[in-house]
Design brief:
The protein is mainly alpha-helical. The chain has helices spanning 15-28, 40-47, 51-64, 82-104, 113-124, 131-147, 152-164, 166-172, 176-194, 198-216, 221-228; strands spanning 37-38, 67-70, 74-77. The chain is built from eleven helices and three strands, in the order αβααββαααααααα. Helix 6 packs antiparallel against helix 7, helix 6 (131-147) runs parallel beside helix 9 (176-194) and helix 9 (176-194) packs antiparallel against helix 10 (198-216). The longest helix has 23 residues, at 82-104. Keywords: DNA-binding, Transcription, Transcription regulation.
């Protein structure tokens, strides 16, 4: 699955929007797997709607790179493009390491409220165990680090990137060991940032993301089917 140009987030409210969001969730939650084929009629019947809003929703998803249409043979969830995902992870490391650098350069004793909130969740509060729930908090952890810098364009690019790799992140969190490791690694990154240890924070963050990047090449069809189950 290669996710290319992002359609504008401004879409009209309505049935097509609901179908679009549901289909995207189906992909992220492994109900629709890379390579799966389906027709507009199948989606319309399942969602009890006409084909018109289904077709509109699918064209939105096609423009964002999640599905592709085949003449006379319906639609298909895009197969994985491993090289593309690795490029996204490389970009993610660049953006987040720059964010960490800027956060570490803040005045001594100044703790932005977003960092204080992250510290509370990842260090002080009881740990969660559900992988899917932790994966959502993991996304928010990394987006918050970038947003805390205060550069709107940097945050926007990072949000778009985060959505594109969401399916990889969720697959990663089907492994129980990733939950505990994520808590430990996030806590270490936060402590380094709060102590203004720029190089250490960047090293910890790069290693943390590299673990997920390495998992990309290990993805198999069997793993995807197991995630669906």
């Amino acid at each position: 699955m290669q996710i290319t140009n992002n359609r504008s987030k401004a879409r009209p409210e309505g049935l097509a929007e609901r179908i679009y969001l549901q289909l995207k969730d189906d992909i992220f939650d492994f109900h629709l797997l890379p390579g799966d084929r389906f027709s507009e009629n199948e989606v319309a019947l399942r969602m009890d709607v006409s084909r018109t809003p289904v077709r509109q929703a699918l064209f939105w998803l096609e423009r964002e790179g999640y599905v592709e249409v085949h003449f006379r043979s319906g639609w298909q969830v895009r197969p994985f493009d491993f090289d593309y995902f690795e490029q996204l992870y490389d970009l993610r490391i660049v953006l987040e390491c720059e964010a960490v650098k800027r956060l570490c350069a803040r005045p001594a004793g100044e703790v932005p409220p977003p960092l204080a909130a992250l510290n509370g969740f990842w260090i002080d509060e009881p740990r969660l165990e559900d992988g899917k729930t932790v994966s959502l908090h993991d996304e928010q952890f990394h987006m918050t680090l970038v947003e805390a810098v205060g550069n709107g364009e940097m945050a926007r690019i990072h949000r778009d990137l985060t959505e594109k790799i969401r399916i990889i992140r969720r697959l990663d969190f089907t492994q129980g060991t990733r939950v505990e490791a994520t808590y430990n690694e996030h806590a270490a990154i936060l402590r380094a940032i709060l102590q203004h240890q720029t190089e250490e924070a960047q090293r910890l963050l790069s290693n943390h993301i590299a673990v997920s990047k390495a998992e990309v090449r290990k993805i198999t069809l069997h793993m995807l089917h197991q995630a669906r189950l």
